[in-house]
């Protein structure tokens, strides 16, 4: 059986002659940056605003522009299925994305994500909480009753996900809980699943380059 190089070594060998960049959502920017440093991955990053999730046109434009900035490089896209045209955009740019429905699934793993989603969770991360008022006003307006009706239709509680890189967003979370009239739960989350997702995406990218 031939000797198999690790993903880390394969990436370092590739990056000795070329550039590989990760372009995508900045909602887990601190976590992704930590994992890149931890693993010493020679991977450049270009993060886009997390608020683009509520604006399909804006997301598509920003992703096209972001990928164009790295047109002379190989790229990996850090997004889930966050846009109905995501696969088309990736194919046009000859790139691939991290596996998973969204960043929450990448962080929790599919099993835990689906279990909480089925039970009615609305997931809240540090970045999303800090920008909540601006994002909600832009999306739903300022009528609290309408906002509550929208969230109560699908959700039973707020689940705040706290990673080792999260700041203290407890006051923001309490504000959001009161606004939506939904109970608040907290979960401390490791980066194990996210690390595996990133490593798998890098491996798939290197495999695709080797096959060319």
UniProtKB/TrEMBL annotation:
This is Uncharacterized protein DUF1638. Residues 47-198 form the DUF1638 domain. InterPro entries: DUF1638. Pfam families: DUF1638.
């Amino acid at each position: 059986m031939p000797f198999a190089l690790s993903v880390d070594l394969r990436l370092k060998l590739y990056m000795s002659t070329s550039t590989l960049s990760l372009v995508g959502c900045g909602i887990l920017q601190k976590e992704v940056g930590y994992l890149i440093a931890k693993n010493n991955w020679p991977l450049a990053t270009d993060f886009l605003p997390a608020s683009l999730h509520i604006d399909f046109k804006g997301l598509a434009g920003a992703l096209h522009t972001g990928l164009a900035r790295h047109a002379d490089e190989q790229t990996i896209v850090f997004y889930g299925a966050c846009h109905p045209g995501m696969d088309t955009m990736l194919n046009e740019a000859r790139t691939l994305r991290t596996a998973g429905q969204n960043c929450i699934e990448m962080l929790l793993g599919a099993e835990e994500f689906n279990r909480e989603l089925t039970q009615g969770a609305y997931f809240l991360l540090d970045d999303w909480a800090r920008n909540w008022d601006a994002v909600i006003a832009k999306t739903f307006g300022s009528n609290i009753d309408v906002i509550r009706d929208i969230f109560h239709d699908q959700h039973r509680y707020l689940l705040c996900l706290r990673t080792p890189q999260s700041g203290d967003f407890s006051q923001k979370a309490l504000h959001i809980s009161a606004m939506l009239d939904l109970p608040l739960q907290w979960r401390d989350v490791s980066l194990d699943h996210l690390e595996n997702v990133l490593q798998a995406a890098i491996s798939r990218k290197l495999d695709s380059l080797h096959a060319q």
